[in-house]
Amino acid sequence: IDTTEMVRISKEFDEENPETRVGAGDLLTVQSGHIGETCIVPDRFDGANSHAIIISRLKTEIASPEFVSHYINSAVGRKAIDAITVGSTVEHINVTDFRKLKLPLPDISEQRKIGDILSKIGDKIAEEKRRKRKLQKLKRGLMQDLLTGKVRVDAD
């Protein structure tokens, strides 16, 4: 969940819209914009309120949130989302169509294993992307120092 542009709501809005509160482990799926992108609500947002997003509460005895999230975000899942996307000016997903989405659900223990493996790989990719950004920033700084003559290089 990207919190950089998070909007705060009033207590009144929250009280008037309890059905849009999310719980830890719920799935959130973008309805318009980055259509279909799905994530799992982390513990720190348990009880937070949401707007213009699809909230899915899975029966965790038959469906693993990690597995379902990875499936929807996969190439195969994206095709399924594309098939239910509507609108010409502003594309979006209707909740009614989203509810009809068919998901392959292996045995719950296998789903959990697959979800864990894919989450660990995703974490490693995110870590490497952070490392790459850090190295690129260092490179830019070094290039600036070298090109401006702030740091001299021996001819030897």
Shape: extended
Distance between the termini: 51 Å
Strand order of the largest sheet: 2-1-3
Report the portion of residues in β strands: 5-15%
Count all strands and give the number.
5
The chain-level mean pLDDT equals 92
**Poorly predicted regions:** none
Number of helices: 5
**How many strands, which pairing sense, and closed or not: the largest β-sheet?**
3 strands, antiparallel
Order of helices and strands: HEEEHHEEHH
Portion of residues within helices = 40-55%
Structural class: mainly alpha
Radius of gyration: 21 Å
In short:
The chain is mostly helical. Helix content is 45%, strand content 10%.
Description:
The mean pLDDT is 92. It is extended and about 70 Å long. Helix 2 crosses helix 3. The chain has 156 residues and is mainly alpha-helical.
Give descriptors for this structure.
156 residues; mainly alpha; three-stranded antiparallel sheet; two-stranded antiparallel sheet; 5 helices; 5 strands
Topology:
Blueprint: H1 11-16, E1 27-30, E2 38-40, E3 53-56, H2 65-73, H3 75-84, E4 85-86, E5 92-93, H4 95-99, H5 108-147
Antiparallel strand pairs: 1-2, 1-3, 4-5
Helix pairs in contact: 2-3, 2-5
